[in-house]
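Exercise: predict the structure of this protein bound to zinc ion.
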Amino acid sequence: MCKHKWIVYSTGLINRCLMLYCNHCDVVGTVNNPTRGEWSQAFYAPRNQYTWKGGNDRVTIRHPKKCA
Ligand SMILES: [Zn+2]
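Solution:
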């Protein structure tokens, strides 16, 4: 089982979620309840991907790549 190392790579503009992928297994997930600070930080994610530090329990695994 992969423990998932989540990387924030984009945002979903319509549903206000963060888009993440796992650096180990490539699965895609979303954070559907980002805080104001998390949302602001993710604004730059398409050009500047970074490791998600909010905890794996807040990530919802998605297929295909879109918000809820
Ligand atoms: Zn994984």
